[in-house]
Amino acid sequence: MNYTIKNDYLTVEVSDAGAELQSIKSADGTEYLWQGDPAYWKDKAPNLFPYIARMTDGKYTVNGKEYEMNIHGFVKYMTLTVETQEEASVTFRLDSNEETREKYPFEFTYRITYSLDGNRLITTNSVENRGEGRMYFAIGGHPGFNVPLEDGLAFEDYYLEFSHPARPNRIGFTDKCFLTSHDDIYPLENDTKLPLTHEMFVDDAIVLKNVAHSVKIASDKGKKSVTVDYPDFRYIGFWQKYGCGAPYVCIEPWSALPSRDGIVEELTQQADITSLDAGRMHENTWVITIE
Questions:
Q1: Could you please report the per-residue DSSP string of 102-158?
Q2: Phi, psi at residue 198, to the nearest 5°?
Q3: Cα dihedral 170→32→291→208 (10° resolution)
Q4: Per residue in 134-187, pLDDT tens?
Q5: Which of 6, 29, 20, 30 is nearest to 225 (CA)?
Q6: What CA–CA distance (Å, rounded) separates 55 from 237?
């Protein structure tokens, strides 16, 4: 079932299936969110929890006990409950249950709130540890945005532009998207800009660190743009399915990285994994600004 929130600037639809965004429309009716054409990529904006990207052999361990989990965790496959809804905000909730315990041995409540503030869509993730011991997890977003955003423009007319200059590192991945532990400098035009081409995704996702925590999709030939701010995330990824001329790009804030190549990770020891003591709550926020 889809739920709608709106204000004078934006109308947003969200499904209870994975609490996944379904639509972000401006007041003039422009659709900014990728609409899931299966010829390119059937999803729109999956939420990533409690893991991001791939695990070696689809497996991991917690204190030596082995579990299995799909790519990007299990929230995207679950139906969440609407906990609260107002005109301009909605909160979805998932509590640990028998199904989640088979994949993930922690007691938790996961919430995701979408709220509107002018032309900004604010996404807040919260995780509550309801168990007796420390829990471990990662959180991320995976929204796709239509590119081009205006008639008469092409994908290659657009660029990604960071808010501040930087010389970021690109995370090294194998051809199956596992970590190599070898990162390279990823140069930007004027230390801020990354022109969009389909060929840039020949090696799958581009995941960066040590870069500004705000990036914009824009074109000098158009007026419409999308900015994603992700102050609480260590990494930012860019992706589209390669080889089909896909008319979208994903901007993905990640709190952690996938497994190392050939290693079944021990979750309690994995780098960048968030740990949360019993009875505590973790919260992070990222923002989509439509212009």
A1: HH----EEEEEEEEEETTEEEEEEEEEE-SSS-EEE--EE--EEESS-STT--GGGE
A2: -70, -30
A3: -10
A4: 999 999 999 999 999 999 999 999 999 999 999 999 999 988 888 998 899 999
A5: 30
A6: 17
